[in-house]
């Protein structure tokens, strides 16, 4: 693990480096925003000066997007079938011929100012797990800066739940530690080290026998989640060189959340389902699992940046010279959709959460800089992941804007000469027809989303089922306002060195 001993391993941003390294890293931070803004502004400029060629580009782009939509829809449907199959399996029977009694489940639950109700939902789901509770190591990781209220809630949880698990530990992450950013990464890294010293070493539990699940505090598991995780770990080709990724459902409060929040949440689920069918593109996201042995060797999650969930993958990938992968589980866990005290606060929370997720773009300069410095990673892997990262963040920030906002520009600003051409007349017709064809995918999306819905709670009208289908008309709005714009916002901030801190999504029930 030679790379781990370099000064580049724990880089959070360009300001952590000096000289030529600072310049290279800074240019890589500028790259994603530069590409996105060049595409958008270039389309506007060409639409004014060269409207004919801009129209041709827009038609080709719309055709590309249609083909891409079909391609992604096929993957979505494939994973939908796989998910339904996996959710109906008896995973305890799947483990019958495997020795797994030695596997412990360490669950990290970091919380800041969430309510007691949110925490109880998560802990109750662990209690309801089919896995042997004596093999559970539950860590409730509170932030010192959360104050006395957090301590009191944690103590309540200890009194009620501690005896129901093999081990239950409360950790209190100190604030203001040198080299750290306040956020989930620094909290769970501290909690994991405390658990190592106070539980694993004290009880002589082997690191390779512990699976660590880094959950958000609102994560609710399905009863056989840990059997599924254990099976995937024991059958993986390289279990100690793998992370394990479930599919995030946002179902805890899906019936109470407004339509905009539901569409954004389910769209996020769909994207993760698509990525499960493309494991060569998959990196860890939000709630994920890995073996403690690997986690300890990596030095835990990085503490000086926001997107620790994805960074732990890139840490492992670079340290192991490209010999690391994410195993798709095609099995769900459930979390909260955005829901705040009123609609306007919910809208703001959706935007801020999407911008924080889009801030995962900070991993692009880290990975590309690592590719430059680490000569042992095979070139084909460097090339493939470079393309995946650049294309992924570029598409996120530009595609919806290009499709839904800029497609009419040549007609609007192209001048009278272009407006009198046959192409000018046909452009909106071609664009409209291509978009209509692409929108047929929404029918599939609506059907899949309905098939996974939890039972409608008491007090929720049956009419809400209709809204669950009709809500998909908001997709052009949500993918632009809550997709492309926050992504462009995050990339612009990175481009100008206006680094973001960690923002905690409110959990309101």
List the helices and strands and how they pair.
Elements: H1 19-49, H2 51-88, H3 91-94, E1 104-111, H4 116-127, E2 136-143, H5 148-161, E3 167-173, H6 184-200, E4 210-214, E5 220-221, H7 225-235, E6 242-249, H8 259-276, E7 288-291, H9 292-298, H10 308-319, E8 325-334, H11 343-358, H12 363-373, H13 379-404, H14 409-413, H15 415-419, H16 422-439, H17 441-451, H18 463-470, H19 475-495
Parallel strand pairs: 1-2, 1-4, 2-3, 6-8
Antiparallel strand pairs: 4-7, 5-8, 6-7
Helix pairs in contact: 1-2, 1-12, 1-13, 1-19, 2-8, 2-16, 2-17, 10-12, 11-19, 12-13, 13-19, 17-18
Word description of this protein:
Helix 1 runs parallel beside helix 13, helix 2 crosses helix 8 and helix 11 packs across helix 19. An eight-stranded mixed β-sheet has the order 3-2-1-4-7-6-8-5, sandwiched between helices. The protein is globular. It has 509 residues and is α/β, with parallel strands linked by helices. It is 56% helix and 10% strand. The chain contains 19 helices and eight strands. Strand 2, helix 5 and strand 3 form a beta-alpha-beta unit.
């Amino acid at each position: 693990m030679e790379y781990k001993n370099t000064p580049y391993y724990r880089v959070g941003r360009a300001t952590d480096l000096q000289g030529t390294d600072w310049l290279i890293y800074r240019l890589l931070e500028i790259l994603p925003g530069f590409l996105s803004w060049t595409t958008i502004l270039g389309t506007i400029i060409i639409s004014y000066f060269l409207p004919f060629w801009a129209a041709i580009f827009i038609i080709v782009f719309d055709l590309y997007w249609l083909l891409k939509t079909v391609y992604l829809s096929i993957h979505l449907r494939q994973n939908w079938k796989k998910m339904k199959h996996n959710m109906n399996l008896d995973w305890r029977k799947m483990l019958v011929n495997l020795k797994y009694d030695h596997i412990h489940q360490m669950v990290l639950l970091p919380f800041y100012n969430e309510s007691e109700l949110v925490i109880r939902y998560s802990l109750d789901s662990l209690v309801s797990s089919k896995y042997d509770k004596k093999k559970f190591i539950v860590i409730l990781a509170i932030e010192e800066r959360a104050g006395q209220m957090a301590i009191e809630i944690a103590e309540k949880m200890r009194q009620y739940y501690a005896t129901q698990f093999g081990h239950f530990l409360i950790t209190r992450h100190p604030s203001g530690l040198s080299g750290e950013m306040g956020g989930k990464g620094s909290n769970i890294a501290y909690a994991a080290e405390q658990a190592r010293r106070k539980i694993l070493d004290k009880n002589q539990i082997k690191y390779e026998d512990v699976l660590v699940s880094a959950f958000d505090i609102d994560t609710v598991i399905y009863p056989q989640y840990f059997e599924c995780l254990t099976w995937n770990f024991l059958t993986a080709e390289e279990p100690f060189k793998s992370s394990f990724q479930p599919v995030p459902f946002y179902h805890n409060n899906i019936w109470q959340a407004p339509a905009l929040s539901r569409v954004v949440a389910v769209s996020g689920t769909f994207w993760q389902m698509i990525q499960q069918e493309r494991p060569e593109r998959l990196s860890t996201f939000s709630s994920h699992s890995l073996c403690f042995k690997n986690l300890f060797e990596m030095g835990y999650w990085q503490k000086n940046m926001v997107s620790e969930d994805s960074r732990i993958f890139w840490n492992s990938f670079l340290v192991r010279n490209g010999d690391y992968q994410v195993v798709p589980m095609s099995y769900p866990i459930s979390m909260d959709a955005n829901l705040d005290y009123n609609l306007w606060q919910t809208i703001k929370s959706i935007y801020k959460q999407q911008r924080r997720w889009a801030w995962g773009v900070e991993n692009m300069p880290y990975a590309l800089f690592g590719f430059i410095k680490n000569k042992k990673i095979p070139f084909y892997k460097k090339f493939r992941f470079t393309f995946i990262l650049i294309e992924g963040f570029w598409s996120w920030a530009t595609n919806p804007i290009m499709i839904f906002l800029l497609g009419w520009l040549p007609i609007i600003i192209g001048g009278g000469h272009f407006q009198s051409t046959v192409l000018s007349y046909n452009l909106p017709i071609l664009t409209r027809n291509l978009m209509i064809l692409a929108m047929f995918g929404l029918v599939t999306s609506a059907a899949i989303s309905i098939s996974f819905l939890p039972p409608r709670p008491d007090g929720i009208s049956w009419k809400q089922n209709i809204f669950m289908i009709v809500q998909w008309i908001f997709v052009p709005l949500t993918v632009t306002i809550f997709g492309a714009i926050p992504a462009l916002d995050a990339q612009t901030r990175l481009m100008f060195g206006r680094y973001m801190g960690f923002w905690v999504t409110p959990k309101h029930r």
